[in-house]
Amino acid sequence: AAAITYTLEALAAGGGTFETIDGSLTINGGSVSVNAAGDGLDSNGNIVITGGYTYVSGSTNGGDSALDYNGECSMTGGVLILSGMSGMAQNLSEASSTMTMLSASTTESLKAGDTVTINDEDGNVLYSFVIAKECSYLQAAVPEFSENGSFSFNISGGESYEAQVSSHTGF
Questions:
Q1: Is the pLDDT at 150 greater than 90, yes or no?
Q2: I need a surface site. Which of 7, 15, 73, 127 has the fewest CB within 10 A?
Q3: CB distance 145 to 165 below 8 Å
Q4: Which letter, b or e, does each residue of 82-117 get, where b requires 16 or more Cβ atoms within 10 Å of its Cβ?
Q5: How many CB atoms lie within 10 A of CB 57?
């Protein structure tokens, strides 16, 4: 598994802050864990995810996001779990993605070390992950979300955030 920690943008494609260079970031397998002080997955062009397991802990700064792109973010397979702040959060591109992303804003900030589970409507744990640093916004796109149903993000300590899947775009 690749583990990446950066002080600015973590996995970035394209130019710097004010450049217009197009780039593409592709994840097609493996296991990637990103702990970013700036944007997590960042492309001045497109992001394409076709497989693998990717966890991104975005910045604690509301001006950055775990997922940041200028073109499209297409996801057709794999697992993508994001934690960060909601200020600049982006969703998957509806036109080019076959996956559904669910999102939840938490009522209190989650702390590093908190465990989050993603559960189906019967309470079965589908995925579990540990928060890398403070956050107040969770996003996930996993194969199980392709079916209509209820899912929840459950936080160690008892908080639960419900989400309904009724279409490709989530909510």
A1: no
A2: 7
A3: yes
A4: bbbbbebbbbbbeeebebbbbbbebeeebeeebebb
A5: 26
Mean pLDDT of all residues in 105-112? 88
Q: Are 121 and 150 in contact (CB under 8 A)?
A: yes
Contact 5, 28 (CB under 8 A): no
pLDDT of residue 73: 94
d(CA 31, CA 169) in angstroms, rounded, equals 25
pLDDT in tens, 116-148: 999 998 999 999 999 999 999 999 999 998 767
Residue indicated by tokens 């309470």: 123
Nearest to 81 by CA among 142, 148, 7, 150: 142
Q: Residue 165: in which H helix or E strand, if any?
A: strand 160-165
Which one has a higher pLDDT value, 5 or 153?
153
Place of tokens 């996995």: 11
CB 92 within 8 A of CB 41: no
What is the Cα 21 distance to its own chain's centre?
24
26, 48 contact by CB (below 8 A): yes
